[in-house]
Design goal:
The protein is an alpha+beta fold. The protein folds into 2 domains: 204 residues, H-NOX domain (Alpha-Beta Complex), CATH 3.90.1520; 116 residues, Homeodomain-like (Arc Repressor Mutant, subunit A, Orthogonal Bundle), CATH 1.10.10. It has a 5-stranded mixed beta sheet. The protein has a two-stranded antiparallel sheet with strand order 1-2.
């Protein structure tokens, strides 16, 4: 069964957008280049594929002509005051308790990044790991991320937080410049993990407005968002299974639910919670598969129909005309080949 697409949440994109604007670049130009809408970034439901970092950071470096763009943007990130993470932190009794609580709710920021609060012989640390080795060693991403964390932790502790040292899994920049002064600590590159170290005494730093009732309220809200994310996981997995099973023909709710280790009733219920149903998703997957294959201009139309699970050409043509307001597959393919921008 296909894996889930690992996503980072819009909150991160919103901060990068604002940092680019503050640094004197045109973030709207970047959004147009990648097909993003800035209006989406502050939507709690918005997420983008974590693997997008592979093309985003090289493209931003090329656009800005800045070999240290992650380091630069990290210094221009906006305050996190008022967002869900700062709200959760402020309500805990201590900085250490807030770190533990937010590590547990890390899916609010990313489905992909693994956050760990740990300790070794060098001290306490926050470790952030990407599941992909090439992204794990993307310097721009982690320099920007760690500068943001330092600023955030300093803000919520009223200036009492300071880093002990930072380890990066990436290669060092060509020029170190004033990095040590900006980070406020020693920094090391070509390490095994990406870690932000700090002294254990900081775990006891009291938060400004500890409130046990507020913690529970904020946690409840955060978990409701995570639950919605988990429901979206089921929808995505359902679509993945349908795509894989399309060549089998008239696949059923029972077959898909079995692949997902759910009962048919449970899958039906969970899809309904997402305001959809199995037949609608099966139809949408077939339509998406067929349209994509026709644009590629490789397989014959007959083969595409079979791969999409249609046993009869007449059934396929009727379905396609329904999807395309009466256009035939031949006309659709010709139109897209004539104008690929469509």
């Amino acid at each position: 069964m296909s894996e889930l697409i690992r996503k980072d949440r819009g909150l991160y994109a919103a901060k990068i957008y604002e940092a680019a604007r503050r640094a004197g670049f045109d973030p709207d130009f970047l959004c147009r280049q990648f097909g993003f809408s800035p209006d989406d970034f502050n939507n709690v439901d918005y997420g983008f594929n974590h693997e997008f970092h592979r093309i985003f950071w090289p493209a931003v470096e090329e656009y800005t002509k800045c070999p240290d763009i992650g380091f630069v943007l990290g210094q221009h990130l906006p305050s996190s005051y008022g967002d869900i993470f700062s709200t959760l932190h402020f309500s805990y009794p201590s900085f250490g308790a807030s770190l533990l609580g937010n590590v547990e709710l890390s899916r609010l920021a990313s489905d992909a990044m693994e956050w760990v609060l740990g300790e070794d012989e060098e001290g306490f640390f926050i470790q952030i790991r990407s599941p992909f080795d090439d992204i794990q060693t993307t310097r721009h991403l982690f320099e920007c991320l760690f500068l943001g964390l330092i600023s955030f932790y300093t803000e919520i502790t009223n200036g009492l937080f300071y880093p002990g040292k930072i380890k990066f899994a990436c290669q060092p920049p060509l020029q170190m410049g004033n990095r040590k002064d900006i980070y406020g600590c020693d920094i090391f590159f070509n390490c095994k993990e990406n870690r932000l170290y700090f002294h254990s005494s900081m775990l006891a730093i009291p938060m400004a407005t500890p409130d046990e009732i507020l913690v529970k309220m904020h946690q409840s809200y955060a978990r409701s968002i995570i639950k919605k994310i988990e429901e979206e996981d089921i929808l995505q997995l359902t679509r993945n299974v349908i795509f894989e099973m399309l060549p089998l023909g008239d696949i059923t709710l029972e077959q898909v639910s079995q692949r997902l280790n759910l009962t048919p009733a449970e899958l039906k219920y969970r899809l309904e919670k997402m305001n959809t149903h199995f037949l609608k998703e099966r139809e949408a997957c077939r339509r998406s598969f067929v349209m994509t294959k026709l644009k590629e201009n490789q397989a014959s139309i007959t083969d595409i129909a079979l791969q999409a699970g249609f046993s009869e050409p007449s059934t396929f043509y009727r379905a396609f005309k329904r999807w395309s307001d009466g256009e035939t597959p031949v006309a659709f393919r010709a139109r897209h080949l004539a104008n690929p921008a469509l």
